[in-house]
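hey so i finally got around to running the thing on that chain from the lab meeting. sorry it took forever, my laptop kept dying and i had to restart like 3 times. anyway pasting the input first so we r on the same page abt which one it is
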Amino acid sequence: MKSETIGNAVFETWTAEELAAAFDRNEVVIIDVRTPQEYMFEHIEGALLMPLAFFAASKLPGQSDKRIVFHCGSGVRSERVCRAAIEAGITPIAHLEGGFGAWKAAKLPYVGTNMATGAPQRVA
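ok and heres what got predicted. didnt touch it at all, straight out
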């Protein structure tokens, strides 16, 4: 994990493997900031959806029990959201380096769409 100090805040960048391990241990909440359409097509199972277009840092849960880690498609939108969260006083905060693309490249499981039926399916 890489970390950057911004004022008094800590901004972390996690690899897909680090995030998957922490998620399996129930130590983090993953928040997907992609569009609802992107999320419906494929997403990390168990990730919550808070699209960038509707992001409100004041609506985020506290981090007393679990850390918040944002992700998007490539890491660009989730970095923007993290910086907005830091401006709102939420720290530490983290995002997935490389986004969902990195998650898939690491061959980690997710929920996709069966193109023949349109139904959701687990992809390993």
